[in-house]
Queue: 3 jobs
Job 1
Amino acid sequence: MNAPFPLVSIVDDDESVRESLPDLLRELGFRAEAFSSAEQFLGSGMIDETDCLVLDVYMPGMTGPDLERELACRGQSIPIVFITAPRYEIVRPILPKERSAGCLFKPFSDTALQKALNLALEDASTACLVV
């Protein structure tokens, strides 16, 4: 982790998520930055500062799994908590498992998010998180 309060970067095309989730994360003891797309996150200069990603699965352009693969190609190992609105059973199998601490279906509880982030950050020192 980079600072006493871990930085969680949120990447989601849904404006309501980008507006509400940072406040919740701050209440839970995290620092938070929000991005409207994977491309915006990649161009932000925040990759090296990010301790964990909360990453939407389905976004226009580069999807959440696409961003995970791009980060892996760049040698970046950031733990990820995927989030998604569609409740399709096909979602979980398409998610990369190397850095994923699981997938939460929107709307998710504060407790579920806290648990997923804690798992991701506790296991951040390992290269593989098991879902």
Job 2
Amino acid sequence: MLKTPRTKLTRVPQRGSHDSETLYAILDEALIGHVGFVTPTGHPAVIPTLIARDGDELLIHGSNASRTVRALRAGQEACVEVTHIDGLVLARSAFHHSMNYRSAILYGTLQPAEDKERALEVFTNKLVPGRWEHVRWPNPQELKATEVLSLPITEGSAKVRTGEPIDDEPDYALDTWAGVIPITTVRGDPIPDPRLPDAMDVPEHVRSLTDR
């Protein structure tokens, strides 16, 4: 991972990392990334969008008509950020309350993906592994209306906080509860589309996603 002045971690740098494996793991778990860029009119914008990693590239997609796609396709530099919140960290003092988290930031210029249909397969299987082989693939009109852009994962950093509260030493004597409240995302049971045939079972590739 390329280290640059803008990826240098200055605030609590011991929580930072430029390790590719750490960065990849954070990106792979994320469904949504926030894409920041400056519009052609000079205004800042941050757009949430579905992301997927394909090797050492990060993919985003959208309508060919969207301002985000048009600006990024024209070469506007971007910053992409994702964050996972793993817990609320309750300290003995208000000042030291925090969160356990995993975050990643990437910088660079995006280019149209070389193989748009394969990129859409990557997106589909990111949502549900194995889903692509069970659905209708995009037709020429749908492919024409869609753009997939690729960002090389070469300049970026990750930052992670784990563990218990860190209080000032005198505050450990306070009669105040402290600890961590974990936060998790849970996938529930599939809810069938009302227009499905009554006899259709939930396929295994969908059922395997549930956490119950």
Job 3
Amino acid sequence: MSMPRRSRMKPLGKALAAAALTLAATTAARAEQVTLDVLYAFPAFAKFHEPIAAEFMKKHPEIKINFRAPAASYDEGHQTMLRSSVTNQLPDVYYSGFHLLTELVESLDKRKQVVDLGPLLKAEPEAWRKANYSDALLSLGQVGGKQAGLAFNASTPLMYFNAELVKQAGGDPDKMPDNWADTIALAKKIRSGDTAGLAYNIHDWPDDWLWRGVILQGGHSMLSADGKKVAFGGETGEKTLSLLRSFVTDAGMPLIDWDQSRQQFIAGKIGIFFDTPARLRQVTDLIGDRFTLKTALFPVDDKAKGKLPTGGNAALITAKDPAKQKAAWEFIKFVTGPEAQKIVVETAGYMPTNLRAGEDAFLGPFYKANANFRTINGQVSRAAPWEGYPGGNSVRIWRQQREVIAGVMRGEIQPKAGIERIVSETEALMK
């Protein structure tokens, strides 16, 4: 027996109406989707940027993250941003190296091209802010009292070492030297044949992070109180350059580029190696079971006043469109949140920039099982801002300083003459 025509049409009409509503909702969602253009430095860091973006898009299907080709370094990214500012082709989100943050923000501010995150933070629940960000972490992204960005990556220089070579030299892998004189003494004992005692690749490092490390650890400052003069000249600078020369003469450091140096360490040809914790995962995986890799705190001569420059970057919003600014804020909150910071630490080795990241729900179990990754957190109390130089020539200043440092390490320039040249050239460019 057939059903009346009207009865058959009723459920069909409901289904069609529901389908139409679904289609309309999907179309509306697509119409409202926001695509964020994002730029970061160092192509190798795709290993954590990509999975973080994927997790974010799962939680926010209305926001699509589109990465521009990564800049080769913070310095290269900085130059790209300055050029893009002039041509109005800025990305919506950018990860600025801390040492270039002030220079970049001051430049973008002139054209009103950077968003002040202060009001956005203030609009969030106070309990949430306090649970996720300490004042020290927030200060890393501040410029002139403004919250220009939120710290995404943070690192201080870290000591990596070959436990077997240290033991053979009479050292104790569980109690590594905590000052430079003892570190050099141990490196001299490790040095043997084609095995170097130590490597500190300051002579070709892409920025002045390692240079600031050896200055600040001694309790010294980079600039005078008024910010107009270099503060590491004279005896301080001469001793620092003499220390760097001793890495070659006493510890047998090979003056090869930093990537080759890292490969030599991985091959078991360097006893003590200084690097960013950002490559700890990579180095750990490449070493495998060749030898026992361990990490230790960076040597600090002045235990009372010694500091270390905080490398890494802060995420900025440079979008002009209100919808993109709103989406970018959600993205920045996520990348600096505990879930994303767990990905960063486990895939790279950075210090987490979120207070909750160390909880058992996130990194707690990982840190218990991976002591080498936990070491860097012992330097948080010494972490100092990594600031640039006034005058807008920070990149050029480092390139000239590095040339002199390399000359001293090769034995072509004496430490006294070297520091005099560094001070005069730096102060000339600061003006």
